[in-house]
Amino acid sequence: MASPFLDNPVDIGAQIVQRALRRERVLRDKQNPLAFSDANLHEKYRFSAEGMLYLCRLLEPHIKNPTRRSHATTVPQMICIALRFFASGTYLYEVGDAEKLSKNTVCRTIRRVVIALQKYLNKFVVFPGHLPTVAIKEGFSNIAGFPRAIGVIDCTHIPISTPIKEIEATYLNRKATHSLNVQITCDHQCMVTSLDARWPGSMHDNQIFENSSLCTRLREGLFDGVLVGDKTYACQSFLMTPYPDPETTPQHDFNMALRQTRRKIEKTLAILKARFNCLRDLRVSPERASQIVGACVVLHNIATIRKERVPEEYYLPPDDDIDDDVDPITWDQPAGRAVRDAITAEYFTDQLNTFV
């Protein structure tokens, strides 16, 4: 029983119980932001500890401070600051509060990491992909039986701050908000295989494609296969789009296979935006926004290659809603119609045929 006349009125038995139940303090190195569980790191930064160490090794030659004077931020700290911004999309001062750094330091660090990631854009984003073309075709064919596909294409709007007055109107999209219209292609594994983030929100998807280097390379016949797109694109010999008014069963089957195959780009965009919430509203200029999009795409491909955890909260729109908010193209090129009819006749007229 406790005595009121002792300095420690708790009896010996109670002290033993307290010591047994007391949790051992775990002291973490404040200079090592990676000293947390993978679950915690995924929630904050979208990468595991091993993935973040890989990013540190990859970017260190480009972002490392030449000295540790004045307590300069370390490479792991810089990676954490940038990933915290990409993953959360919050204001810079909130990122600074979370990482216990000033807003100016956060801004400079994010800028440095973005520029460093841009240097790897052509290494990690390759068309038609890092796998052999035959493997990519087979991967797409396994989805719904659509043959010859080497990629799926679509555009997505990335909201940005109001640009300067001289160019403001060109960045107004059909919803009367300012955005970039970003063209992306992907493979069957949701890897981004090409990116064009230069264009304002008022630009139509097909116009962006016609002005892209990807279209030029496809027109020159540099790739063996076709892209798969929706009704916002004109059907060409290297870009298959659905029949606008299917009349026969094979044409309906062609459209169904194309639609199911094209879901890969919808999934890729959904994962990309869920992984990096900053892409839902970039409060920066068009030029800076384009660079941040490129950095996030590089990180997405690295995460995909390393099989990092996919965010559970990504939203994939219902199949019926995918094409509801687009301006359809009412003309198709004769060569495109001929290739589309040939594919329909060879692969969808007789369902016993399979693509190898």
Describe the fold and architecture:
By secondary structure, this protein is α/β, with parallel strands linked by helices. It has 13 helices and five strands. The protein has helices at 12-21, 38-45, 49-63, 75-88, 92-99, 103-118, 121-124, 133-144, 205-210, 213-219, 249-275, 286-305, 334-348; strands at 149-159, 179-186, 192-200, 226-228, 239-240. Strands 3-2-1-4-5 form a five-stranded mixed β-sheet. Strand 2 (179-186) and strand 3 (192-200) form a beta hairpin. Helix 5 packs across helix 6 (103-118) and helix 11 packs across helix 13. The longest helix has 27 residues, at 249-275. The N and C termini lie far apart (83 Å).
Report a brief summary of the structure.
The protein has 356 residues and is α/β, with parallel strands linked by helices. It contains 13 helices and five strands.
> Distance N terminus to C terminus?
83 Å
From the alpha carbons, calculate the radius of gyration and give it in angstroms.
26 Å
- Uncertain spans: 352-356
Number of helices: 13
Order of helices and strands: HHHHHHHHEEEHHEEHHH
Tally of extended strands?
A: 5
Biggest beta sheet attributes: 5 strands, mixed
- Helical content class: 40-55%
Strand content: 5-15%
Mean pLDDT: 87
